[in-house]
Specification:
By secondary structure, the protein is α/β, with parallel strands linked by helices. The protein is built from 10 helices and 15 strands. The structure holds NADPH dihydro-nicotinamide-adenine-dinucleotide phosphate (NDP).
Length: 330
């Protein structure tokens, strides 16, 4: 009999009611692909919370093994770039949405989706960073390409206690920026200051509708919250500044006006990690391997086991998870 391994499976019944189970599966149950990877570490992102609870339509093929990112070792490969024993990372590409994902001890994927694990990292380090941290780096690269430097002025990070937020705070501080952290959990001030935030503001300051243009407070921002918060972030960005939009923790809407764009020349930069081209991913992971303080990363990350994924996925949507969660799959 073929070797079995554990997988989390989300399914829908005829009435589209979603259920989540842990099942024993074999390699034959996995979807097509030219590389099989032993998943050594994965993580729980906000998006995985949405997929497991069914709160938003992340899953677009049923049943599905959720989990949008993993790191591990190639077991077998028919892809020219990879051979057995290679250490790899996968983020996005529809994995955990339309292609069986990370919450199984093995994954069969398209080799074009993989990138090499930087030499300085272990799979667990890569997943302490995860899609959230890689997205944080995509935001920083976008700000840099827009000409923002530490001399431009402070950078605001919204959702600062979350995954994208906490890695952003840590990276920006290491790169010499003055960081303003916006959070609903002001009790976590010591945690955020330890990551490198200079100032903490209550997210309530930004979450209610405000004026089209406000006092100029920051040179740029990394926003993972969207909605009214992003509108207020834009209206308080200084002349010529840039803001990256990567998330929707408050909402998908953006009730703003053109005022910040036409009167202050502000740029709104969209960030997508899922379909980002390989060259940009490699640039982001290379920068993560040099620019992220290992000690700070350790302080952001909490390690859980495979059996704790489902509970954690629910908790992340309730704002109960601080920083990053690493799932040890070994
Ligand atoms: P987390 O849940 O770890 O962080 C989100 C944070 O947002 C929370 O910790 C909280 O921070 C804040 N927040 C939550 N609810 C609200 C609310 N109602 N109003 C204001 N702030 C709120 O998620 P991730 O960091 O993994 O992801 C953040 C966002 O980025 C998500 O929307 C996710 O879907 C998106 N994302 C997008 C990617 C892309 O490719 N564009 C890739 C990765 C993530 P605090 O407690 O500090 O207030």
């Amino acid at each position: 009999m073929a070797d079995t391994f554990k997988a989390i499976m989300v399914s829908r019944d005829e009435e589209k009611k979603q259920s989540v189970t842990i099942e024993d599966i074999t390699l034959d149950d996995l979807m097509d692909g030219d590389v099989v990877v032993r998943v050594e570490a994965t993580t729980v992102n906000y998006k995985d919370g949405l997929a497991i609870t069914g709160k938003s339509p992340v899953v677009r093929r049923w049943p599905m093994i959720p989990g949008v990112d993993f790191s591990g070792t190639v077991v077998s490969s028919n892809h020219a770039k990879w051979k057995a024993g290679d250490k790899v990372i996968l983020n996005g590409w529809g994995v955990g949405e339309t292609h069986y994902g990370a919450y199984a001890q093995q994954a069969r994927v398209n080799g074009d989706w993989l990138i090499a694990l930087p030499k300085s990292m272990k799979p667990k380090d890569a997943m302490a960073i995860g899609t959230a941290g890689y997205t944080a780096m995509l935001c920083i690269l976008a700000l840099e390409k827009a000409g923002i430097t530490p001399d431009s002025g402070p950078i605001l990070v919204t959702g600062a206690n979350g995954g994208v937020g906490s890695v952003s705070v840590s990276l920006l501080a290491k790169l010499g920026y003055r960081v303003i952290a916006s959070t609903g959990r002001t009790s976590e001030e010591a945690f955020l200051k330890n990551l490198g935030a200079s100032e903490i503001i209550d997210r309530a300051e930004l979450s209610e509708p405000g004026r089209p243009l406000g006092k100029e407070r920051w040179a740029g921002a990394i926003d993972s919250v969207g909605s009214t918060t992003l509108a207020n972030v834009l209206s308080q960005t200084q002349y010529g500044g840039a803001v990256t939009a990567c998330g929707l923790a408050q909402g998908m809407d953006l009730p703003t006006s053109v005022a910040p764009f036409i009167l202050r020349g502000i740029s709104l930069l969209g960030i997508d990690s899922v379909m980002a081209p390989i060259a940009l991913r490699e640039e982001a992971w290379a920068r993560l391997s040099t620019d992220l303080d290992a000690e700070k990363l350790a302080s952001i990350a909490t390690t859980i086991s495979f059996n704790e994924i489902i509970e954690t996925a629910t908790g992340i949507l309730d704002g109960k998870v601080r920083g990053r969660v690493v799932v040890d799959m070994t």
